[in-house]
């Protein structure tokens, strides 16, 4: 049975599948290549220099995280090196160290869980987005119908006002005619 997915749903599914494939490749790597997760860690991604604030200096724990990367205002995330640099350095050193110390299976389970939740949430967001569009169309149709009703009401009100004005004129003329007839 084939289910229909929106374009956004298909894109999200492809992204989740790619993430899961990357996770599986990382998990399958030999443990000797890097830290506990089996990934390769470049020295510039391990921690900042010892002379500055890093995860080993508690006095720096409250300072803002400022990644030391070569990304500039004009950098695009279409280049693999820029992507790797952003992905590797955007997290603060304490988080990178925490994740590095976790077991491979914990990383895999959490990543799969997060990926599936991301996919489920994305589906709900896409559904809500579609409903919002439908609700907007319904609202616009109701607004148009209300405007038409208002025009009809205003036209009828104007017509009734004219009829009342005509009736008042006739009444005034009849009173005048009656008053003139009584004088005679």
Structural account:
This protein has 184 residues and is mainly α. 68% of the residues lie in helices and 0% in strands. The chain is built from 5 helices and no strands. The chain has helices spanning 7-28, 43-46, 80-89, 93-101, 104-183. Helix 1 packs antiparallel against helix 5. It starts with 6 loop residues before the first helix and ends with a helix. Residues 29-54 have low confidence and may be disordered.
The helix fraction, in percent, is: 55-70%
Radius of gyration: 36 Å
Number of strands: 0
Instruction: Please summarize the sheet with the most strands.
Output: none
Low-confidence stretches: 29-54
Order of helices and strands: HHHHH
What structural class do you assign from the helix and strand content? mainly alpha
- What gap, in angstroms, lies between the N and C termini? 98 Å
Shape: rod-shaped
Defining traits:
mainly alpha; 184 residues; single chain
Structure in a nutshell:
The chain has 184 residues and is mainly α.
Give the SSE map.
Layout: H1 7-28, H2 43-46, H3 80-89, H4 93-101, H5 104-183
């Amino acid at each position: 049975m084939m289910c229909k997915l929106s374009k956004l749903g298909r894109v999200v599914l492809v992204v989740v599948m790619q993430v899961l494939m990357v996770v599986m490749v990382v998990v399958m790597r030999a443990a000797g290549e890097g830290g506990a997760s089996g990934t390769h860690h470049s020295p510039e991604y391990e921690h900042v220099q010892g002379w500055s604030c890093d995860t080993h200096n508690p006095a720096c724990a409250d300072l803002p995280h400022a990644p030391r990367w070569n990304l500039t205002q004009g950098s695009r995330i279409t280049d693999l090196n820029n992507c790797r640099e952003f992905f590797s350095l955007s997290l603060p050193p304490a988080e990178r160290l925490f994740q590095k110390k976790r077991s491979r299976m914990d990383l895999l389970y959490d990543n799969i869980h997060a990926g599936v939740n991301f996919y489920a949430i994305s589906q709900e967001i896409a559904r809500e987005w579609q409903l919002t569009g439908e609700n907007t169309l319904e609202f616009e149709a109701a607004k148009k119908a209300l405007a038409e009703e208002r025009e009809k009401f205003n036209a009828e009100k104007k017509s009734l006002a004219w009829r009342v004005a005509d009736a008042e004129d006739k009444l005034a003329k009849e009173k005048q005619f009656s008053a003139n007839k009584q004088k005679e």
